[in-house]
Write the structure tokens for this entry.
Amino acid sequence: MTRLFFLSVLVVCFYSIGNSQQEKETAKKHWAISFSPGIVPLPGDPLGLQPGAEFFFNPKISLLNEISLQTGKNKNLYSTALNKEYFKYKTEIRYYITKKEKVNKVYFGIQFTTAKRKFDVGKPDRYYETFQDDSIYTYNSASINSPVKTGTLQFGVTAKVFNDFYIDLGMGYGVRVINTEYTSLVNLKKISNVGIFHIRPISSYYYNGKLTRSQLNFGFRIYYRF
């Protein structure tokens, strides 16, 4: 995924250089800063802050970079999760299909994200092996490392609301890869034959090992362009 991202950036750069002479008089390189709230995928679903910046190579092509930071460490009702750590980096290459003079601009994009996600569990809990449907592992305490990577195709629109302020609404679909590892396990036990009607948890960090799922995302952010 990392190699694909750098290859995409090189393609964008060469495309921009090749069209720079044609758009020299009309294309003004500029920046935009953005901000949006979010939900951090940790126990308790704490709120996150997502600042970002978008650089326009020309009026049609841009590169958005964004980070996501958690807030309120350990200050929620999910008391089993401790020492939570989360940091996400997002990059998105966009192509705007709407003419420059339009107030509302439609775009397509390719987005990649990578997220660090760690926390400890200090009370009895459970987890599942990714490819074992008939067993549960219980424990009294553990440390969980569960990084997440995604790649999606994006579609969205930016709309001007006041002077140089814009809102951005987007959605995307693709793939999400989670690689969870449980360590420092205390009093680990395996419980077999849990039954076909047992309801398994949705959260990906309950599954030890590599897990691949489809990814559907929705985004909202506020822009200031200059």
Q: What stands out?
A: The helical segments are 2-19.
